[in-house]
Amino acid sequence: MIAATLLLSFASDSFAGTIVVSEEIEIHVAKNGSDENTGTSDKPFLTIQAAANVAQPGNVITVHEGIYRERVNPLRGGSSADKPIVDHAAPDEEAVIKGSEVIKDWSRLEGDLWEVTLPNSFFGEFNPYSDTIHGHWFESKGRTHHTGAVYLNGNWLDEAASLEELGASAGDIPLWFGMVDKQNTSIRARFSGVDPNTEEVEINVRQTVFFPEKQGLNYITVQGFTMSQAATPWAPPTTEQLGLIGPHWSKGWIIENNTISHSMCVGVSLGLGNVGLSVVGTGVGYTELAFFLNENDLWSKDKIGGHVVRANRISHCEQAGIVGSFGAAFCLIEGNEISDIHVRERFTGMEMCGIKLHAAVDVLIQNNCVYRTGYRARGIWLDWMGQGGIIRDNLVFETGAPALYLEVNHGPILIANNIFMSETSLSNRSRGTAYVHNLFTGQCVIGNTTRTTPYMKPHSTTIAGMHKNYNGDDRFYNNIFAAPSINKKASLAEENKRPTKPGPDARYNDETMPLFMDGNLYINGAIPHEKDPDPLVSEQEQADIKVIQKQDGFYIQWISNPAWTREHKRQLITTEMLGRALIPDMPYEQADGSPLQIDADYSGNARMLSNPFPGPFTKLKEGKQLIKVWPKK
Hints:
Elements lengths: L5 E5 L6 E5 L4 E4 L18 H7 L5 E4 L2 E4 L15 E5 L5 E4 L1 E3 L4 E4 L2 E7 L18 E2 L10 E3 L2 E2 L1 E2 L3 H6 L6 E6 L3 E7 L10 E4 L15 E4 L2 E5 L23 E3 L2 E5 L2 E4 L13 H13 L12 E3 L2 E5 L2 E6 L6 E3 L2 E5 L6 E2 L3 E6 L5 E3 L2 E5 L4 E6 L5 E4 L2 E3 L6 E4 L5 E4 L2 E3 L2 E6 L3 E4 L2 E2 L2 E4 L5 E5 L6 E6 L5 E4 L2 E3 L7 E5 L20 E4 L2 E3 L2 E2 L8 E2 L8 E5 L2 E8 L2 H4 L8 H4 L1 E2 L4 E2 L35 E8 L3
Parallel strand pairs: 3-4, 4-6, 5-7, 6-18, 7-19, 14-15, 18-20, 19-21, 20-23, 21-24, 22-25, 23-26, 24-27, 25-29, 26-30, 27-31, 29-32, 30-33, 31-34, 32-35, 33-36, 34-37, 35-38, 36-39, 37-40, 38-41, 39-44, 40-45, 41-46, 44-47, 45-48, 46-49, 48-50
Antiparallel strand pairs: 1-2, 8-17, 9-10, 10-16, 11-28, 12-13, 12-17, 15-16, 42-43, 51-52, 52-55, 53-54
């Protein structure tokens, strides 16, 4: 069947482009179909996998309404950005893909305690109830965790540490515990006052939901699905990173307008594949891996990255919403709403975050909303070898750890027009960073480290050298620093400690580790940095600056004072004005090498070219007001 033209377009700086798929085969999938059919609109396939088995570059797979319990494993990708394979939900139809199965044969043991026993053949080659969560930088809290889960009406129950804990728990605490022998898997669960045979109870069966086994399948588009309930493993940056959905070490995927939730560890993985090298889980191991990829031509722009992750709703992932080691280079991450990350806190580690990227070369992270994370989960985190990245126009709040964390990068990294409203808004252990027109309400910490990390040639994955990460070479222009309450102090300060081994002081040095500051505003009791040469400190008492949720989205309560513009002269921020990051000797510029200027605000309004207003907003009325910050349209 010849399909009507499908037009997919996006435009954002160096990522601007249009993908047109026309006059190609359209393959249909529907719940009244059969995998013995031909895939036409009147004879659709029953499973998405059947369509994926026959799809060729340029084909469009249209999935009609219904719940599809399967793991989609594409067999091939598109041949170019102009000829991808497109998987999408039919317009105005809800197509759901789940990694779980419904279980009805529960037997009551006593009270709210129930049990079901399944043959191991039910799970096939992968059994999430014998598959443990483990890996580099994972912390188990002294017990065993599995990738399996039990869901009651879409909400997951916690895994008990033992049968004793399950038996001792009160009736109102929903828990489960699994036991696997050579033949069977038994799951006991405590349901609070309900009969699981009359409710929807699901259990994890599949490790991923939309994820190819084969690496290097390029140019696949996934649009408009609801995807959930995957038994994903821990995904550290030094090993293969699996997610509920992901391109598996390839290039040119588009993942957009999906709802992605309830992944045991990772929602979207853009990260490392199996590259044939096992390293230790340390910084030394990660550096060894980076050189291995370089020396064997396994990580380059023509092979890896360049994905678009746009306008997805990502939630309830216990490690990260979006993760990507090496494979996120040259990507656009835009317009996503990410929340409820690591909120159960049953295990912990060093990789929990809304967006956690390693080796983020020329990444553009813009117009995202990240909020409500667990106590060790950050909002946005660029770690090791972040270079040429731009983080702009994002809203990040209510994170248990810093809203923005930059770790051992040499830059340049530009952070502009963002709203960071967590108890700790910024933790910077990098150099070559530029903070421009942001709002910080909370502590901002500038730390120091002596770790040695690689840097690359400009706009490239080619390693140019190694350098220690003493803090320095940072820029703070036209930002607003504010405490959330007049009674709660906030400041831009360096950690009050020195290295345990001989080395430079953690404080900035004007000659070798300079700090550039100008045009910053400090309100609501915020304390200027000692090296800010001309801070504007407002003595006017301010009401709380806070995020308010309404039915149509999130607003910021704000008070504006016109004196903030009159009393201070600020510069328009441009590539020329920011200069060059010292270590890679690279300007703050677009991914295509063109210059930039911060001439629009968080909402896209034009900024005054002469004496621009500080912070992320430019069109403000005087006095108290509510500003709509999410969604933006």
